[in-house]
Every structure is written in C-alpha cells, then in structure tokens.
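Section 5.1 Outputs to date
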Amino acid sequence: MSLLGLISQLLAIVVALALAPLLSGWVNQWRARLQNKSAPGLLQPYRVLHKLFNKESVLAEHASPLFRMVPYIVFGCMVLASAIVPTLSTDLPLSPAADAIALVGLFALARVFISLAAMDVGTAFGTLGARREMLVGFLAEPALLMVLFCASMISRSTSLTTIVETLAHRELAIYPSLLVAGVAFTMVSLAENARVPVDNPETHLELTMIHEALILEYSGRHLALLEWAASLKLFAYSCVGLALFFPWGVAQADAPLALLLALPVLIIKLAVGGVLLACIEALSAKMRIFRVPEFLATAFLLAVIGLLVNILLGVA
C-alpha cells in the first residue's frame, strides 16, 4: 500500500462525508426553485444534522438492541460504499477487495438491516415501509447488477477502478450499450434513493412514503446518522454514475497533480448532475406503488438490452 494510495483513500472518505449533505441541499434547492417555491438554504442539511446530533434519542419501549445498532450499521455501509467508488483517484487500497458486486451487496446489507429495524418496534407504518423497501430492492438490485455488468464487459473486469481506467484512458469510442444502460441506471438510482417518481422524501403521507416510514421511530443522533447515510447513498450512486458514464477527470495511480484537479472536476460534475436530478423530479409525478414494479422491470430490460448490444457488437 503506497502512501499516495492511502492519502487518496482517506481523501475519498472525507470528501464523501463532507459533500454528501451539500449534494442533498443542492438538489433540494434546485427542486424548490423549479417548482416556484421558496428554496431552502444550501447548508440546511448541515444545520439539520447539527440539531439532531445535539438532541436526545428517544427509544420505543419494546425496541431491541438491533434497533439501536442499525443506524451505525447503515451509516458504516454507506461510508464503505463511498470509499470503494473511484471518485477522485483509481489508486484506492480498498478497490482490490471490493468490486461492483460487493458494492451492490453493501446497499443490500443496509436495506436488510433498516427494514428489520423498522419492523422491530412493531408499528404499522414501520412494517409498511419495510415491505415496500424490500419490494423496491428486490427489483432494483438485479437491474443495477446488469448495468454494472454492461460496463464490466467492456473492461473485462468487475472492479470499478479498472472500469474507470478502461473507459477514461483509452481512445474515444461510442458505446451504444452505455447509452441504454445509462437510462436504466437513472431509473434505478431514482428508486434506490427514494426520489420522485418512485418515492417523495418530503412527504409523510402513509399511503405514499417508503423511506420516511422506515425512520419514523428514530430521533436524535440515530436519526442524524440515518439522514447522513441517505445523503451518502445519493452521493455514492451519483459517483457510480459518473464513474461509469463520465469517468473523465479521475486521477490515475501515482498522479498527485491530477489528484488536485480531480476534486474541482468532481464538484462540477456533481453540481450538473444535481440540477438534472432536480429537473427530473420537478417534471415527474409520484407514481402509484403498484406501478413501481413496471418501472423497475423496464430498467432491468434496458440493462439487459445493453448487455445484448455489447455481445452483438463484439465488445464482450
């Protein structure tokens, strides 16, 4: 493990922890502007986290130790997921031990634990949210895997760093499969991050909420960790999309000067992606929960079409 690689890994974790709430605030601000509403401050997520960390955690009477442990487990999964995605550099010590399949596994592990915690207290809303969350995950994870496999067929590796190095540092080529896979990835990321049209993170209506139903019984530092983890998940998905479809600007191994330029490039790409996400949410309407399987099945079919296009074009 080189010193530069260790610095790149630590910098990636620090950047994820620092920029994740800022990305959520940026998306919320632009979404409010596009809907002609009064936009919240860009630093509002930091203020919310500060307020929650300074409040006392109130636990349900019949909450088990699992209920107390889940916020830390989910937060740890999201930090680790952000650490193995090449956001700034491909020289990441964790990348050889964690590839695209492990990344999907981390998302699935966090989903299972937060669903168990929602059912642990025994409230109707928690059980409702857990069932819906597992339904979304059951349909979204295969589609995400197909998208990652579509990119891995080009690089012949499931390592995210290898995929980025292959796509970013080779002759310019047009891959029709990545265009189709990009649409599928956008649909999956909307569902996985509880965004419109699958879910609305700003609503508390029992007939529509998924993410909010899971964390309804949490408060104080536990709720702060879960909100921070949700921002980290959005950040991780955004960085995965940038790594697969817009990998330019990521520093190669043993390139300290490129590492200095990678941070402003990442911020610019996240800012543009946040505006596009806000536009999608502003132009979309919340769909019925019974339409979500059709939505995610379409994403899965698009990802499979991307795989078939790679095979037909002789990429694989």
